[in-house]
Amino acid sequence: MNNKIFVTSPLLPPLEEFIPYLEKMWSSRTLTNGGSFHQELEASLADYLGVKYVSLFSNGTLALLTALQALRVTGEVITTPYSFVATSHTLLWNGLTPVFADIDPLTFNIDPEKIEALITPQTTAIMPVHCYGIPCQVDKIQQIADIYGLRVIYDAAHAFGVKSNGTSVLNNGDLSVLSFHATKVFNTFEGGAIISHDLKTKQRIDYLKNFGFAGETKVVAPGINAKMSEVSAAFGLLQLKHIDRALLAREQIYQRYMRELALATGLSCYQFADDYEWNYAYFPVLVEEHFPLSRDELYEMLKEEDIYARRYFYPLISSFSMYRHLDSAAPQELPVANQIAEKILCLPIFPDMTNEEQGRIIETVLRLSQRKCSEDVNVQQVA
Ligand SMILES: *Cc1c(COP(=O)(O)O)cnc(C)c1O
């Protein structure tokens, strides 16, 4: 009866618009290794995002892995437990030790006040995440990095198109890493990028993503294969033509949620501040104690209505078996992250969501928000 509504649905342009790109590829017979679509997408993205250099990757995880290699990060890296597992996994894959810092309850991002106490002689870098595309406190983080001589690599997987003080948040830190996975605001099926600020660094990144080749017979580093293919790059160029419409649609969906879900007691919606331009990548809500259902009950009951919200990010990275032995992973060291992980639920938001679909989500959440009150106490709650 009802169609299923997932937490997200990929941005897809009309299929016929993609055919000319494929025809060009078939005639040029260039499929990868920095072909013309790849070069064009790097330039177009740098221009669109307002950044200096873009290096395209086959996915965001390989881009993170390579960013750490590019800066020769060693030892310990201070990061957030409140993220997708790839953030910390790329540290382990590089033989680095993640050190978890607690998060700020208002932005869900690493709390700069918690960083300094975790620095040891082994610390060489900080890897924060602009969670949900909400900018980190970049100035405070940079100040700490400057004092202690640390590198800053932003996992900016959620932060496509986010601007602060009129400039891209991707211009902060030494490097920023984007993901163009199908679930993200801007996708190339799979894909990612590293944003760098000087040509020498871009060049090293580009060598590293192509086995370390710096010429036909010259290999300068033990690189990896993380190149973006021409088909993904071409798709990215087409997506760029649709991205502004998609961002606007996201904003409208966010505004309607904010207007209509305000009627639900016990739900805290994320109210974004107006000192930055957001991309409305996610719609996070906190299911508070005075909501009549637990977060997991709400999640399950929405599922029964074919509404697939997601608990991003639960469980915390620090609770997984490969991390929980770390001193910094102990729940008492991360009280805010643990609280948020228990309360968080991301409701569906994607550019092609219909008014009807969003109406169904809002109506269901509002109905469930009154459920126990009316059943247990038999008093009709007035919205
Ligand atoms: C999606 C995501 C990644 C990984 O990106 P892929 O392109 O899927 O490899 C890394 N970090 C965060 C925070 C993400 O959400």
Automatic annotation (TrEMBL):
InterPro entries cross-referenced by the UniProt entry: DegT/StrS_aminotransferase (IPR000653), PyrdxlP-dep_Trfase (IPR015424), PyrdxlP-dep_Trfase_major (IPR015421)
SUPFAM superfamilies xrefs: PLP-dependent transferases
Gene3D superfamilies listed in its UniProt record: Type I PLP-dependent aspartate aminotransferase-like (Major domain)
Key words, A-Z: Aminotransferase, Pyridoxal phosphate, Transferase
Family the UniProt entry places it in: Belongs to the DegT/DnrJ/EryC1 family.
Record organism: Lelliottia aquatilis
Pfam families in the cross-refs: DegT_DnrJ_EryC1 (PF01041)
CDD domains cross-referenced by the UniProt entry: AHBA_syn (cd00616)
Segments traversing the membrane: none
Record carries keyword Transferase: yes
Molecular function terms from GO: transaminase activity
Record's protein name: Aminotransferase
